Amino acid sequence: MKNKTISILLLLFLLIPVAAFTITGEEIIRKADDMQVFDTSEASGEMRIKDRFGIKVSTFNAWSRGKYESLLEFTSLAERGQKILRTEDELYLFYPDAEELIRMQGSMLRQSMLGSDISYEDMTGGKDRISQYDVVLEGEENINGNDCYVLIMTAKVRTVPYPKEKVWIDKKTFIIWKAEYYTKSDRLLKEMETLRVEEIGGRMIAMESRISDKMKTDTETIMIINKIRINTPLDVDFSLDDLSW
After folding, report:
1. How many domains would you assign to the chain?
2. By C-alpha distance, which of 190, 157, 176 is closest to 33?
3. Is 214 contained in some domain?
4. What torsion do the CA atoms of 186, 193, 125, 174 make, to the nearest 10 degrees?
5. By residue range, what is the domain housing residue 166?
6. Distance CA 188, CA 182 (A)
C-alpha cells in the first residue's frame, strides 16, 4: 500500500505543468531592476560619441541614491560644470556659464544629451518597471555566449520613454545584455548593448555599453564607467542646491 501511495504521488508530481516551476517575466524584470539599484553609488566615466564628423569624448562624475535620485556633472573642457539632476518627479539641467537652471519637460526631454544617442528622456526611465509595463516572457536566446531570457514589455502608462521594449536578460546574473526600444507601432527607435561587465560588491555591473539611435545615420555612443563605488556615504543631497556648487 505504501509503495502504491508513493507511485501515485510521483505520478501527480510529473503531471504538474512545467510552467509551475519556471520563473515568470515579472520576476525576471524585478531581479534585473534590483541589480541596477544601489543605496548609493559614486562613479566617473566617459561618453564616446561617434557621428559622421568623428568621435567626441565627454567625461563625467555621477552620483545616485536609490531608484530615482541622481546627479551627473560633466568634467570635460567643453562641458565642464554642466549638471543634470534627477529627482523622483523632475529633471533639471544647469549651465554654469549662464548660471541658467532649466527644468526639462515635454518635448525638451527628447533632445539629445551633448549630441549623443542618449536623450534626456532616457534618464527618466524608472527602475520599477513592473508597475509601468506588462511583461511577456517570449523565450530564450544566447547573446555572445550568455544564455538569456527574452522579454517583451508593453507600456501600461504614458510616463515611460518608450511604449515597447524587447530585452535580453542573463539567466544567471540578470544583467541586461541587449535592449531594443520601439514605438507603439513597432518602429525601432534605439538599441542598447552591454559590452563589458564587472563584479563589484557582489553584483555584476555594466561597465561599458553601446547605444545607437536608429533615427540617426551612422551614430553610436559608448558609455564607459571607469571607476565606481557602491553603498558608501555621499556628499550630495540631490537638491537644487547641488547644481550651483
Report:
1. 1
2. 176
3. yes
4. 110
5. 40-229
6. 5
**Burial of residue 31 (number of CB atoms within 10 Å: 0-12, 13-18, 19+):** middle
112: which strand partners?
A: 119
211 within domain boundaries: yes
Positive or negative, the Cα torsion across 203, 197, 162, 82? positive
Let me know if residue 28 belongs to a domain.
no
Please tell me the least confidently modeled range out of 9-18, 70-79, 136-145: 9-18
Percent of the chain with pLDDT over 90: 70
Question: Domain of 220: which CATH number?
Answer: 2.50.20.10
> Hey, what long-range contacts does 49-52 have (CB within 8 A, 24 or more apart)?
49/114, 49/115, 49/116, 49/117, 49/219, 49/221, 50/218, 50/219, 50/220, 50/221, 50/222, 51/115, 51/216, 51/218, 51/219, 52/217, 52/218, 52/219
pTM of the full structure: 0.86
